[in-house]
Amino acid sequence: MFFKLRKPIFLLLSIPAIALVYIFLRNLSGYSINYQVSSPCACYKCLTDSDPWFNYNISENEFNWWKRLQTESRSFGVYGTTVANFFKIFPRNPDVIQPKPDHCRTCAVVGNSGNLRRSHYGPLIDLHEVVIRMNTGITRGFEKDVGNKTTHRVMYPESAVAVDDNTHFVPFPFKIQDFEWLINASTTGFTGRSYMPVKSKIKTNKDLVMVVNPAFMKYVHEVWLGNKGRYPSTGFMALILALHICDEVNVFGYGADSDGNRSHYWEILTNKGLRTGVHPGSYEYNIIQQLDQQQKIKFYEGLTKKM
Fold this sequence. Notes:
By secondary structure, the protein is α/β, with parallel strands linked by helices. The protein has one domain (3-93, 100-300): Glycosyl transferase family 29 (sialyltransferase cstii, chain A). Helices cover 24% and strands 11% of the residues. It has helices spanning 60-67, 76-86, 122-126, 143-146, 176-185, 214-224, 234-245, 281-293; strands at 3-4, 22-23, 31-32, 54-55, 106-110, 130-134, 152-155, 168-171, 248-252, 298-300. Residues 1-11, 14-37 and 50-56 have low confidence and may be disordered.
């Protein structure tokens, strides 16, 4: 498979009120990442887009696809009103490092796989300007293997953890309530219910909140995954996010551990029958390997089971 990021969709909710910023993908049939002769960054190679243009609206069709992920029953109009209220509290323009010809935006995407144990990747991970971690992935006690630097924490309400004042809080919303949760949990407190417990209060720097557009999920599902699985995993969406905000992307902590199990590096696995559920885990992993083979990213596999 040959990947062409000619018109990558970018991602983050921004102005106007129900808007999102994303670069429209003109050619859906296949895509590659192009490197320009006149380099736009100071990396050895740069992930670039030759001719982006921005669209500031989420369509009702995209909304209708998204609302089915967790059986959202409310309307497109309610979504718009909720997002308008969201922007009364959080910044309309995402805090993204802009490309410069004299600067290399390096990005480490750190998954939670047990293959990070005994990897000694920690110092290498911490050298990156941007370090993206997922959900409840912890660092304390595991610094030698996973590092301790976090600039962006990707999660959803049911997996949310507090972040410090210097870390970007990057929620992936799956339903309208996820926007409402962040509004309330960061102010007066959230009292609603979800399919599993959610925190009533969350500590985060409101100026560093970057909400990923619901249309981004649809784009990743259709273009990158060919509609396989019900929707992409958080880890895979975080990787594609990194391809759009960094010049150089290095990936750690994805895939099964050395025994072939889907474990987390901070826990001793008792249930060895875990699978990737609604996500096409094997297909996502194969794409990551192909991107590495094509030298679009560098994939540090860790202690994985060699097949």
